[in-house]
């Protein structure tokens, strides 16, 4: 809880710094009306933090059995809400993922992570995944993929990618590591198909096939058709990359991949975000320029400074040392979550804990990666830091739901 409050406080100070230049142009805060204050992100974030604290109290006083009992009900309700959002939401920046309730905008995709974690944990508690029952694994995949597909339909690809993090939690509960290895290998092959000539990759994959058959006689004697089938499927993936890249991906998604592969190709155009992000991070040096002294932040060089690129403010104003402290806090938080998950007495509690850890790890890793040019810019907020009520509420619900389960772990029966 202390780490949570510290991260939220640091995040608010960075949101304030990102909008400080706007506030400094106006009159004293005392002379501003409530409507005028609502034009500043830092003030709206302060309100979101206040409501998040009320949410914390509610999550901790709710009967811990409700999380397990209502898991499927909440999941079904969220699926329905995602469908409604697809129908009635108006497009905002090309995405139909926001519900507008008067002056408040909420993004159901953020809360879908919580309900999916509950439903997946409830399902995992009812089966033994180590039995490698493929029907159970398909059911689990359906629980995970259904909200992700609805989110993709609303044109929020970044949020949908987060659901891939659930695989880490499933792996802890006995999912075959072959699935993770196949997915990792597929990603590497697809990326290689974009970077190197296709015939080079074709030769390399053929050599791998021949080497595998020569070194493992069991493959040659018993699994030759299956092995050749996997090789053919891989070659098909390589040949289909260009079609997928040119006909399935949207223009802005192709631009993000191009920037990741060659960030210096168009630094004043499609590479502007990443270029300015790196400048902001590097300009802070060892100790930073000081709070409210960041020029990249103050003059809005970095787009989405308060949301996706909030970590740039940390690097510019607090320097390398400040970045190290923030990263250390996140790593400590993740370590504590894993520790709490491991001491749960039920499969439901342990699985849910690992779902929380996996989601936070994915957000943390991808957000920092995209600010440094190590991952494509996919619009994933930094937990507890980035401006936005939906993300703050979502991460708060995930974390304190786990703490509510942990508080009563000794009363729960092992299932």
Written description of the protein model:
Helix content is 71%, strand content 1%. The longest helix has 33 residues, at 310-342. α7 (108-125) runs parallel beside α20 (389-407) and α11 packs across α14 (224-248). The protein is globular and about 80 Å long. It has 415 residues and is mainly α. The two termini are 28 Å apart. The model has no long low-confidence stretch (mean pLDDT 84).
Question: What labels describe this entry?
Answer:
415 residues; mainly alpha; two-stranded antiparallel sheet; 20 helices; 1% strand
Blueprint of the fold:
Layout: H1 2-18, H2 20-25, H3 34-37, H4 41-61, H5 65-69, H6 71-88, E1 99-101, E2 104-106, H7 108-125, H8 134-153, H9 157-161, H10 166-172, H11 177-195, H12 198-215, H13 217-222, H14 224-248, H15 251-261, H16 272-283, H17 295-298, H18 310-342, H19 347-371, H20 389-407
Antiparallel strand pairs: 1-2
Helix pairs in contact: 1-4, 1-18, 4-20, 6-7, 6-8, 7-8, 7-19, 7-20, 10-19, 11-14, 12-14, 16-18, 18-19, 19-20
Summarize the structure.
This protein has 20 helices and two strands.
Question: N-to-C terminal Cα separation, in Å?
Answer: 28 Å
> How many beta-strand elements?
2
Q: Main β-sheet: number of strands, strand sense, barrel status?
A: 2 strands, antiparallel
**Strand pairing plus helix content: what structural class?**
mainly alpha
Radius of gyration: 23 Å
Low-pLDDT ranges:
none
Beta strand %: under 5%
The side-by-side strand order for the widest beta sheet comes to 1-2
- The H/E string reads HHHHHHEEHHHHHHHHHHHHHH
What is the number of helical segments per DSSP (H or I, 4+ residues)? 20
How much helix is in the residues?
A: over 70%
Shape: globular
